[in-house]
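Comment on the following before class.
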Amino acid sequence: MIVKKILFIIFALVTSFFYAQAGLASLSKLEFKQTDGSTFQGYKRGDEWFNWVQSERGVIVLLNYKSMNYEVAKIEKVNGELQLLSTGKIYKTEDNASGYLRNTLRSKFDLQNIWKRKVKKVRAGMGEE
Protein backbone atom coordinates (compact mmCIF):
# COMPACT_ATOMS: atom_id res chain seq x y z
CA MET A 1 0.00 0.00 0.00
CA ILE A 2 2.82 2.39 0.87
CA VAL A 3 4.59 1.55 -2.40
CA LYS A 4 1.44 2.48 -4.37
CA LYS A 5 1.21 5.82 -2.56
CA ILE A 6 4.87 6.56 -3.19
CA LEU A 7 4.54 5.64 -6.88
CA PHE A 8 1.42 7.82 -7.17
CA ILE A 9 3.23 10.79 -5.60
CA ILE A 10 6.23 10.34 -7.90
CA PHE A 11 3.92 10.08 -10.93
CA ALA A 12 2.01 13.21 -9.89
CA LEU A 13 5.21 15.19 -9.37
CA VAL A 14 6.72 14.12 -12.68
CA THR A 15 3.57 14.85 -14.71
CA SER A 16 3.00 18.20 -13.01
CA PHE A 17 6.63 19.13 -13.79
CA PHE A 18 6.11 18.48 -17.51
CA TYR A 19 2.84 20.41 -17.60
CA ALA A 20 4.42 23.32 -15.75
CA GLN A 21 7.25 23.65 -18.29
CA ALA A 22 5.39 25.81 -20.78
CA GLY A 23 2.54 28.22 -20.24
CA LEU A 24 -0.21 27.66 -22.74
CA ALA A 25 -1.78 30.57 -24.54
CA SER A 26 -5.25 31.83 -23.65
CA LEU A 27 -8.34 29.91 -24.74
CA SER A 28 -10.57 32.99 -24.73
CA LYS A 29 -11.19 35.16 -27.79
CA LEU A 30 -9.10 38.35 -27.83
CA GLU A 31 -9.04 41.51 -29.93
CA PHE A 32 -5.83 42.20 -31.85
CA LYS A 33 -5.01 45.68 -33.13
CA GLN A 34 -3.02 46.55 -36.26
CA THR A 35 -0.90 49.70 -36.46
CA ASP A 36 -3.46 51.33 -38.78
CA GLY A 37 -6.07 51.01 -36.00
CA SER A 38 -8.02 48.14 -37.55
CA THR A 39 -8.79 45.18 -35.33
CA PHE A 40 -9.65 41.50 -35.61
CA GLN A 41 -10.79 38.80 -33.22
CA GLY A 42 -8.67 35.73 -32.58
CA TYR A 43 -7.04 33.31 -30.20
CA LYS A 44 -3.48 33.06 -28.91
CA ARG A 45 -2.02 29.63 -29.62
CA GLY A 46 1.19 27.89 -28.54
CA ASP A 47 3.36 28.73 -25.54
CA GLU A 48 6.30 30.96 -24.62
CA TRP A 49 8.69 29.10 -26.94
CA PHE A 50 6.52 29.00 -30.05
CA ASN A 51 3.31 30.95 -30.55
CA TRP A 52 0.98 32.40 -33.12
CA VAL A 53 -2.53 33.83 -33.43
CA GLN A 54 -5.47 32.06 -35.00
CA SER A 55 -8.04 34.52 -36.32
CA GLU A 56 -11.73 34.03 -35.68
CA ARG A 57 -11.93 32.82 -39.29
CA GLY A 58 -9.25 30.18 -38.69
CA VAL A 59 -6.38 31.98 -40.44
CA ILE A 60 -2.93 31.48 -38.87
CA VAL A 61 -1.33 34.89 -38.18
CA LEU A 62 2.07 35.99 -36.80
CA LEU A 63 3.07 39.24 -35.15
CA ASN A 64 5.84 41.02 -37.05
CA TYR A 65 7.85 42.59 -34.21
CA LYS A 66 9.47 45.17 -36.51
CA SER A 67 6.26 46.61 -37.98
CA MET A 68 4.04 45.50 -35.04
CA ASN A 69 1.44 44.27 -37.53
CA TYR A 70 -0.16 40.84 -37.58
CA GLU A 71 0.67 39.13 -40.86
CA VAL A 72 -0.65 36.02 -42.60
CA ALA A 73 1.55 33.00 -41.91
CA LYS A 74 2.81 30.14 -44.06
CA ILE A 75 4.55 26.85 -43.33
CA GLU A 76 7.68 26.29 -45.40
CA LYS A 77 10.72 24.06 -45.32
CA VAL A 78 13.90 25.96 -44.49
CA ASN A 79 17.14 23.96 -44.48
CA GLY A 80 15.07 20.76 -44.45
CA GLU A 81 12.96 21.75 -41.41
CA LEU A 82 9.40 23.04 -41.38
CA GLN A 83 9.12 26.64 -40.17
CA LEU A 84 6.17 28.92 -39.49
CA LEU A 85 6.95 32.13 -41.38
CA SER A 86 5.24 35.40 -42.18
CA THR A 87 4.16 36.04 -45.75
CA GLY A 88 4.62 39.78 -45.22
CA LYS A 89 0.92 40.36 -46.01
CA ILE A 90 -0.90 42.26 -43.26
CA TYR A 91 -3.98 40.33 -42.13
CA LYS A 92 -7.30 42.07 -42.76
CA THR A 93 -10.58 40.42 -41.80
CA GLU A 94 -12.31 41.69 -44.93
CA ASP A 95 -9.76 39.98 -47.22
CA ASN A 96 -10.76 36.83 -49.03
CA ALA A 97 -8.97 34.30 -46.84
CA SER A 98 -9.33 31.32 -49.19
CA GLY A 99 -5.61 31.16 -49.99
CA TYR A 100 -4.42 31.70 -46.41
CA LEU A 101 -2.97 29.08 -44.08
CA ARG A 102 -5.87 27.84 -41.98
CA ASN A 103 -6.20 25.81 -38.84
CA THR A 104 -6.61 22.43 -40.55
CA LEU A 105 -5.60 18.93 -39.50
CA ARG A 106 -2.46 19.19 -41.67
CA SER A 107 -1.44 22.61 -40.32
CA LYS A 108 -2.09 21.42 -36.73
CA PHE A 109 0.20 18.44 -37.36
CA ASP A 110 2.91 20.66 -38.87
CA LEU A 111 2.64 23.25 -36.08
CA GLN A 112 2.87 20.51 -33.47
CA ASN A 113 6.04 19.15 -35.08
CA ILE A 114 7.59 22.64 -35.25
CA TRP A 115 6.67 23.20 -31.58
CA LYS A 116 8.18 19.85 -30.50
CA ARG A 117 11.44 20.66 -32.30
CA LYS A 118 11.63 24.13 -30.70
CA VAL A 119 10.92 22.77 -27.21
CA LYS A 120 13.58 20.10 -27.70
CA LYS A 121 16.12 22.78 -28.66
CA VAL A 122 15.20 24.91 -25.65
CA ARG A 123 15.45 21.96 -23.27
CA ALA A 124 18.79 20.92 -24.78
CA GLY A 125 20.03 24.47 -24.20
CA MET A 126 18.91 24.20 -20.58
CA GLY A 127 20.81 20.94 -20.17
CA GLU A 128 17.66 18.83 -19.80
CA GLU A 129 18.41 16.44 -22.68
